[in-house]
Design a protein that fits this description.
This protein is α+β, with helices and mostly antiparallel strands. It has 2 domains: 80 residues, no CATH class; 131 residues, DNA primase, PRIM domain, CATH 3.90.920. Helix content is 22%, strand content 29%. The chain contains 5 helices and 12 strands. Strands 9-10-6-8-7-12 form a 6-stranded mixed beta sheet, covered by helices on one side. A hairpin with a 5-residue loop joins strand 7 and strand 8.
Length: 225
């Protein structure tokens, strides 16, 4: 698709975009990050979030009924000024794991992410990690594993790691308890979704990597496009 027909139409309006985020701004952003989006969604089934008539639509299939995948050839047809967010999905076997720090309290989220990161540093099956702001109120830790594993085994391994760690009495693990950050591991299931790097969230904020050294000083405003 070419440049939006209605470029000035406001798609998102919130505290970060008080004047509104338009179709043209969203389209231009996704043209700018096209190489990154293609890199991080390569050969992966996607969940796509689109805003139409001020309603959020979650799309898993294309018009032909097939899973959605982005390629150089179809990028400009899939990505429009109303296409907000891209989430990758997990396969039965993966070489990555996602630790989702689930809380609406941003300061608690930063502390919980740092605590989880320190625990995960001791796991020998993890080669390296990226802390990723999700564009909402919290963070993911993407763990890159030294070998491919069954996705259920990855989840069980992480549950064991956190439940036997020094932070097990500080946070819940794959549960939800009011006012307590939850270490959510259920993205590590077949077809489990997670936002990809440089995608926008439904807030219009950018999903971006953050160095552990900069985590405590990170603010949401740094993710405005």
């Amino acid at each position: 698709m070419s440049f939006p027909v209605h470029p000035d139409t406001i798609i998102i309006k919130n505290q970060f975009y008080q004047e509104g985020l338009s179709e043209a701004q969203i389209w231009n952003y996704y043209q700018k990050v096209k190489p990154s989006i293609l890199k991080h969604s390569n050969s992966i089934d996607l969940i796509v979030f689109i805003i139409v008539n001020q309603k959020l639509l979650v799309v898993r299939k294309n018009k032909d009924g097939n899973n959605i995948r982005l390629t150089k050839e179809n990028y400009d047809q899939v990505v429009t000024g109303r296409t907000i967010s891209f989430h990758a999905t997990m396969k039965p076997q993966e070489k990555i794991a996602i630790v989702d720090i689930d809380t609406d309290d941003f300061d608690k989220a930063k502390q919980a992410t740092e605590d989880c990161y320190k625990v995960l540093e001791r796991v020998q099956l993890i080669r390296d990690m990226n802390i990723r702001f999700t564009g909402k109120s919290s963070f993911h830790i993407q763990c890159n594993l030294i070998k491919k594993m069954a996705i259920d085994s990855i989840r069980f391994m992480l549950e064991k790691v956190f439940n036997s760690s020094e932070i097990s009495d500080k946070y819940t693990v794959s549960k939800s308890r009011r006012k307590v950050p939850n270490i959510d591991l259920f993205r590590n299931t077949v077809k489990g979704g997670f936002i990809i790097e440089d995608s926008l969230a439904i807030t219009g904020l950018r999903c971006m990597n953050i160095d552990i050294k900069n985590l405590s000083s990170f603010t949401k405003e740094k993710a405005i496009i």
